[in-house]
Design a protein that fits this description.
alpha+beta; five-stranded antiparallel β-sheet; 4 helices; about 25% helix
């Protein structure tokens, strides 16, 4: 899906979080600069399949998100950094699931939480 790269606006490339986009067959279509930096040890992942880089539990979640069009959100700590991971399906114009988007952002350990009613 070569035209996907040209359709992504410049703001995605320079965001201060990792943005990774795949199609419905789990092929990686796009990685912004931060995403490429995060996964550099694996080389160029564009065109590679997500499932080749995940364990069985994660593969189950990926398949569920693609089947339901849902989302998954959690936090991790790796290398002394806390991150929030937000994974969501994206939809085509005909409302079918086109694939997944993952945003990974560094968050402070003492991140404030506000209740706004």
């Amino acid at each position: 899906m070569e035209d996907f790269k040209t359709a992504v606006p410049d703001w995605a490339w320079g965001m201060n979080c990792a943005v990774t986009v795949s199609d419905a067959e789990c092929n990686i279509l796009y990685m912004n600069a931060r995403s490429r930096e995060t996964f550099a040890k694996h080389g160029d992942l564009i065109g590679k399949n997500l499932l080749d880089y995940h364990n069985e539990r994660s593969i189950g979640i990926i398949r569920h998100l693609l089947a339901t069009g849902g989302q998954n959100c959690y936090t991790i700590e790796k290398g002394g950094l806390r991150k929030m991971i937000f994974q969501t399906a994206w939809r085509r114009e005909d409302d079918t699931v086109g694939g997944l988007v993952e945003l990974s952002m560094i968050i402070p350990a003492d991140m404030p939480h506000y209740i706004r009613d």
